[in-house]
Amino acid sequence: MAWYALSPRDPADPRWPLPESPSLTLKADDPQDARDKFMAAYPSRPFGTPTSPVPDAGEAGFRGDPDALVVTPTAEPPSPPRT
Q1: In the chain, which ranges are continuous DSSP H helix?
Q2: Residue 17 lies in a domain
Q3: In which domain, by residue range, is 68 found?
Q4: C-alpha dihedral (45, 47, 52, 56), degrees to nearest 10
Q5: Among candidates 45, 47, 36, 49, which has minimal Cα distance to 6?
Q6: pLDDT tens across 30-83, in order?
Q7: Per the record, where are the segments of Basic and acidic residues compositional bias (predicted)?
């Protein structure tokens, strides 16, 4: 497995689920597997709103817009510091 960095093509894209982080690094078999893992962790249709908590009611996310998410090979990220 290799490491991949995922980021929005447009840094100001409001659909990016991690506004405090410009990219996300994860381990996957290939770029499509990395994209699939991202989509599973951050679904394109979240669970509605607090007033209407219905599955698949929201429109946020990158599913259906593959060009908006950039997947690039990267090096293994450093281990987190010991506390």
Answers
A1: 31-41
A2: no
A3: 2-10+23-74
A4: 40
A5: 36
A6: 999 999 999 888 876 555 556 666 655 555 667 778 788 999 999 999 888 887
A7: 27-38
